[in-house]
Amino acid sequence: MDPSKLFEDLTWADLIIIGDELNAIREFDSKMLEHQELRTVCSQLKIKGVKNAPKEANIQRIVAFYKIKDTTSLQIILMSILQKQDRTPSVLTG
After folding, report:
1. pLDDT tens digits, the chain, 94 residues: what are they?
2. Is residue 94 part of a domain?
3. Pairwise CA distance, residues 80 & 15, whole Å
4. Which residue in 1, 14, 22, 69 is deepest, having the highest Cβ count within 10 Å?
5. Residue 76 to residue 2: CA distance in whole angstroms
6. Phi-psi category of 75—alpha, beta or left, where left has phi over 0 and alpha has psi -120 to 50?
């Protein structure tokens, strides 16, 4: 099947990452995906620089971006909670 249609409307919520390993993308085992399919996944998730990278490097890049995104999301949530409580830490306000 055409990878662009297979992973159309892909979001970060469609990834199953446990620890440092990408286990699945939607219902597909990540180890069974072809290089072109991983490139399509990266494209849908706005991850650049994967065109000539090997399959394993693309999987590692997806996991790395997921961790960065996850950490950033937690920081934003924490800031929102602290601002609502009017307890913004001085480290974050400068």
Report:
1. 566 688 888 999 999 999 889 999 988 999 999 988 999 999 999 988 888 888 999 999 999 988 888 887 777 777 777 777 665 555 555 5
2. no
3. 26
4. 22
5. 36
6. alpha
Q: Tell me if 59 is assigned to some domain.
A: yes
Tokens of 20: 């440092």
- The encoded tokens of residue 56 equal 């394993």
* Domain that residue 75 falls in: 3-88
**DSSP H helices in 11-89:** 35-44, 55-84
How many structural domains are present in the chain?
Answer: 1
How far is Cα 1 from Cα 55, in angstroms, rounded to an integer? 19
Q: Rounded CA gap, 68 and 88, in Å?
A: 22
Residue 93 belongs to some domain of the structure: no
Q: Is residue 39 part of a domain?
A: yes
* Maximum separation of any 2 CA atoms in the chain, in Å: 53
